[in-house]
Amino acid sequence: MTTPNLRKSPAKFSIPHLTYRVWTVWHRNLDVFIKTIKVNFLPSLLEPILYLVAFGFGLGGFVQNINGQPYINFLAPALVAIAVMNGSFFECTYASFVRMYFQKTFDAIVATPVSVEEVVAGELLWGATRSTINVTIVLAVIAAFGLITSPLFLLVPIIAFFGGLMFAAIAMCFTALAPNIDFFNYPAFLFITPMLFLSGTFFPLTALPTAVQALAMTLLPLTHVVNLCRGAVVSTVEPILGLSTEMLLLVSLVWLIAVTAFFFILAINMMKKRLIA
Amino acid sequence: MVSREVLIEAKGLTKKYDDFLAVDHIDFEVYRGECVGFLGPNGAGKTTTVRMMYCFLVPTAGELTVAGLSVKSQCREIKALIGLAPQEDNLDPDFTVLKNLTVYCRYFDIPKEEALKRAEEQLKFFQLEEKRDVPILALSTGMKRRLIFARALLNQPQILLLDEPTTGLDPQARHLVWDEVRHLKKQHVTIILTTHYMDEAQILCDRILIVDHGKIIEQGSPAELIKKHVGEEVLELDYDEKMIPLLKEAFPQSRMERIGDRMQIFTDQPHGVFEGFLQQHKLQNVSIRNANLEDVFLKLTGRGLRAE
Q1: Which residues are registered as beta bridge partners of B192?
Q2: Full-model pTM
Q3: How many residue contacts between A and B have a Cβ separation below 8 Å?
Q4: Which of A45, A120, A247, B172 has the most CB atoms in a 10 Å sphere around its CB?
């Protein structure tokens, strides 16, 4: 039977009720990942190497020291942060959409005792896991290049997981709205690409006008992940907007936690509205 | 029927979309161990009703309970009791045949070893053992439908929801599905079946609910419905205007219907009433057959085509 144009019934906005079943959804995605590990592994490994060679060594030779350190040391933690963003954002847009829309995997799972909320939460945790896996690879690459100078780098996987969870949740909100898969070109080009360049990644934010700095600090999630990664990998973060290094890291940490919690709950509610009519 | 314990109960059950009443204040009961068929044209509300039973759709109004549990608040408990074979293929194309089943078991908290055991059993019954390690994309439509059916049985459900289980199957595969349905009926599994095949409903179902425009327009056992609405036998012959007065005279009580260039005359008289008429009038292309559920269905829901 063809169902007519669905206006969703009023699923009330709520704090999701989650159980351990979230992990069964996560586990499904892990199983697929392991099956296709070779395809998954190679791009994550090659990308940071290319960036380091092209920008770090190539371009970096023409760039003065930043905050008392060579350009390549400034760049390395940003590559970690970019891996956090890309890992979960693309997982929870394109890949989740394929599972939801084309494969009807979510429909199959919600016919079991697993709830819609748990399906979405499992997808988000998986997105965060993808970020963590990608970041671990990038971390290994920059370690091989001798670019880790702080023992705090051990915190990076934790930053990657929670930062990944944030981007996963933001991505899932787009997925809840997407009428078709081409829709993701909008967030990819209007959200991810600008963020890639305007978050203190390839040059310090202080090179930009104060207003742009303020915007980057308030609106761009990647800025905060970059700050935290830089703090952990090379332990020197250039002050922005008059905030000291310590204050800046604290602000970024609080920002990340608050925004992750907000979008986590929002994403689950939006998806629930889309999936259960 | 084995017992009269009510397992599924709907009262004033309604599902409304914007300006469309998909299910319109329906009441019905399903008893434990029964096989109940929901029949209706496309868009009648069959699938919508089934989807409310496993909490995939939320009712707009009314009550629906499954094993005494409300679909409004006890979805998880309900879904643990239900096996679902949906209309569309939602097998997991990222996995092989076997892995589809074992991963599905995980959603039901079935431990790993037990999951493997049950998966192998189902593959054996549905004659998919050879396809055990094959990706889903390599399966034919019939094999996919069988695997979907197999998957629905993994949690050993008390209630099985079969939404058009044999659509697109070849006769061999249909009979395999029917055998399994009969086997499950013997084990007192309650079965809800939607189908467009009247022979299937007639063979498998203890009771039929005919649904149209979101309402249940008739219900009863296949035999009851046929007797009540069509009678015993049907005479089919080529349409010929000259024959109509003769037929009316010979069978004054009978309903007559023209379909294209054919005519049907229905009788509730005992078998043999048409034979005498045929001996008097030498006619070509004539057949006498038993009345069936399809006659009932077409009488009640009309012959007009429905929007897809």
Answers
A1: B36, B161
A2: 0.91
A3: 92
A4: A120
